[in-house]
Structures are given as C-alpha cells and as structure tokens.
Design brief:
- It contains one helix and two strands.
- The protein starts with 12 loop residues before the first strand and ends in a 21-residue tail after the last helix.
- It is mainly beta.
- A hairpin with a 5-residue loop joins β1 and β2.
C-alpha cells in the first residue's frame, strides 16, 4: 500500500484484496479528504458502501 499524504493508513484507507485488482476501503469521507492524492496514488474508482443512494466518483476528475 503506497503512503498517501493526508490519509491515515489503515485508519482511513486500507487494502481489502490485491488479487487481479487492488480493492480498498475508505472510512466515511470528510470534507478534507485528499481525493487528488488518492487518485495520484493509482486509484481510479470509488464505491460508496455507506448509502446505496450515493452515486459519485470524485476520482474521475
């Protein structure tokens, strides 16, 4: 898992699997979540597991 500035690993972001693709978990994102830093670390998608009505991908910019 790469170090990401502004993210406390594994408190806020953690690896779930490494097979074929990297799947991570993220605690409920706050206003100061460093989306650009997460994207720069190689992550390209986000799935909200906290609310099925939420559909957004801040990593697609």
């Amino acid at each position: 898992m790469p170090a990401i500035d502004g993210i406390r690993i594994p408190l806020n972001l953690y690896v779930v699997i490494k097979e074929s693709t990297l799947l991570t978990g993220l605690s409920y994102p706050g206003m100061r979540t460093p989306w650009k830093n997460i994207k720069d670390a190689g992550f390209s998608g986000l799935v909200c597991l906290c609310d099925s009505r939420v559909s957004y991908n801040p990593l697609s910019f």
